[in-house]
Amino acid sequence: MSDFTKELDASGLNCPMPILRAKKALKDLQSGEILRVIATDPGSVKDFEAFAKQTGNELLESIEEGDSFVYRLKKS
User: Fold this and answer.
1) Is residue 15 annotated as part of the catalytic site, yes or no?
2) 3-state secondary structure of 1
3) Among 13, 15, 17, 29, which one carries the catalytic annotation?
4) Which residues contact 33 (CB under 8 A, 6 or more apart)?
5) Confidence band for 10, pLDDT divided at 50, 70 and 90
6) Backbone angles phi, psi at 46, to 5 degrees
7) What angle do CA 16, 22, 28 make, to 5 degrees?
């Protein structure tokens, strides 16, 4: 079993698109479910930290994998 409910590939998208896509994807999830996001925009690191604080969703993971950034957000 995977450690996330839904995956969003936002590779190649620049700010603010990865956040907007993540916000839309989170709407489809139930509280406690996890969204995994893959992004290539280096600015997305700060964006996802701020997004989690503003929305109350928990940023479980923020890691760099090669040229990509992987985030796991737990819906509040």
Assistant:
1) yes
2) coil
3) 15
4) 5, 6, 74, 75
5) very high
6) -70, -35
7) 145
Q: CA 21, CA 8: separation in Å to the nearest integer?
A: 8
pLDDT at 1 over 70: no
Structure tokens at 63: 């890691």
In the chain, which residue ranges form alpha helices assigned H by DSSP? 17-27, 44-55
Other CB atoms within 10 Å distance of the CB of residue 65: 8
- Read off the pLDDT band of 8 (50, 70, 90): very high
Token readout for 39 is 């992004």
Q: Return the closest-CA partner of residue 14 out of 45, 39, 49.
A: 39
